[in-house]
Amino acid sequence: MAFRGLELKVHSVPSGALAVEFSLMASRGLTYADAGVDIEAGDAAVERFAKSVRATHGPRVIGAYGAFAGMFRLDFNERLFRRNYRDPVLVACTDGVGTKVRLAIDLGVHHTVGIDCVAMNVNDMICQGAEPLFFLDYLGLHRQDPERTAELVAGVAEGCRLANCALLGGECAEMPDIYRKGDYDIAGFAVGVAELSRVVDAERVRPGDVILGLTSSGIHSNGYTLVRKIVEKAKIDLQAEHPRSDGQGQTFGEQLLEPTRIYVRSIMSMLRAYKVKRPVSGMAHITGGGIPGNLVRALPKGCRAMVSKSACEVPALFRVLQRAGRISEAEMWKVFNMGIGYCVIVRPTFAEGVTAKLEAAGETVRKIGVVRKGRTGVELTA
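RE: above sequence
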């Protein structure tokens, strides 16, 4: 039998063992491409997405494109940039997209998970009040398909554009021995900066603070192992039309692949609007663990968040999944964002002002709760 340019010959021997002889089917020796890695295809992919990457570069990116490492100017010139940092603190985080990638592969939709990858990182970063500066991505591939890779990187570049950060570099690793045919994975990390005196941390939260919820664009990038199990067990047709909450038509699969909302521009513009006062006492990105598992990370000892489920106005998509999978209410709130992708904890006297600024920046904002004195945690109420 033949296997990628090799012929396997099996002979019987008197001892009853097997002797295995390999002989090259061609006169030439093995190449890297024979082993499953196509360098030329990788180069072609780089050429395809180079324009998307460069489009995210501003004047703070220095050095040649394609170098061994990217460079970003932190100590920038006041004449070139409107703002500066007196005591800058670097902030970094890393994350991936999880099994949402599996759904994207199965549906043949590859241009959205790059946005998800950026979102999962930068939405975490801004919880500390940090401005994202640059992003790097990692693609693990079964085979290098230049067109598909360009789609993936274009999504990353779009995410960086929405987050006002530079796509500074990345890696495409072709590993046919690790990934199955057609499979890939995507992850990345972001680096940002915050002014030390303006860093947002949990210690500033006080009883009486108001909790504002910014609506999500859908499921975002958490809980997809459960979502895929629901789809499988309930035999949901992902190509069937399924009206959205706003009445627009989409297939069920398209709704499940809706990219994670990136909150960078609205949050940063709101924070910068307050030059002296600090109305925001805490923030939380609602990812795996839902509101209870993430809002608690923004609370100090002795503070308890009281969150109204009805104030969150859960989108229909979540209820469809709940019914199809017969998922308990508690499990839904434990796993999914339930329509709230980001929380901002503010001083009560600033709640209206912060809401107005976020809405002016394009967010839908709901007052979903309040901070009380008590055992640290999140309590969901009707």
